[in-house]
User: Fold this.
Amino acid sequence: MPLKVSTPIEGLLENYETALAQTGYSITTKMLLAKRADFMIRRHLNAGLAYFDQTIINRYMDEIDDKYFKGNMQKKHYERTKREIDRFVSYVCTGRIDSLSSTLRGARQELTPKFEQIAKEFVAGDFHPNTRCDIRWVTHKYFAWLEGQGFVDLTGVGTIHIQKFLLACSEQYPPSTIHNVRLYLKKLYDFLHATGRVDDNYSALFSFAVNREKRVFPVLPKLDIAKLLDTIDRSTVKGKRDYAVMLLGTVLGLRVCDIVALKLTDIDWLRGEIRIVQSKTANPVILPLTQDVGEALKDYILNGRPNTADKEIFLRINAPHKRLAAAVTVGEIYRDCCIAAGLPANKRFHNLRRALGTSMVTNGISIYDVAQVFGDKDVNSTKPYLATDTEHLKMCALSFAGIAPAGGDAQ
Assistant:
């Protein structure tokens, strides 16, 4: 797709991130796409270019193709990378938000005017950005299914139709998706009932539970965490930044998205507190500014952080010294520490948060107190940390006394 006008590199990433957010991408997806865009922009800067050049992209695409066809890249990763590149180039060439491919999947199909109006009003409600896209998808999926059954509005729609839709979904989607479909349909019917469009919100119909598969993740041992921190050279600017980032995850359990978004104004040095609104949950949380975290932040801000107008604390090491483009950058910091410490590079930064939660529970801290520290309104979000508390799990184990062996004589 040829460029109609020259597009300056400066400010391009920020404009792209804004377009992604306005199009309805989740925070996680937006960060991944922005990371790919940042990589391509850096290639232009390294080549000394001030304007977008398709030649740079073509070379990058050739490298991706060569890597894939030599067997050094999996097909799934290859196809995803190509889509990310195409999406960015499409935006650069047109400058329009609608040039980006839709993230709404089932919401791509058009609805009748009445269903479309209901969906628009419902989705515009007070929902967190992380869930708004999924809510829109479920709503459009349901209304499109009703249209396929011959309905042009909600007249005549009742229990049997809701049940048939849920049954159709159960044959197509995994339990985790069914859980969300049930939850968002319940919210939809609460909205429809509250606005007088239906006589019943069918709360009893949506009261069934969906058993979702839950993985038990291993906890990173304390010795391994110590190794990760010891590998960082704190005499360099990069080391000062990376050490502060790692401590925020290790000591306070902050998520990567909150670390990237952490601003200078979020730190109350006089009260010794960090005050943020969590990106994932939109829940406010106040954390203690412990001495080790405070010293690490002070060392980076005063002795390493470039002097820029950006309000975010953590910036790029190389010029231009902008805020970190995506949470993926924190993942790369963690990966590099793992490699330097001789640990598997496939471990995730979230392991630090999980290790902190497990340590707190193991040391007798109430799960409700852990939830408060982590900013979780629902204690169920914190319960996975109990699964790795082996010491307390041993107390729940039953003996085998009185149970006769089967399948052979006792030895």
Notes: The two ends are 77 Å apart (CA to CA).
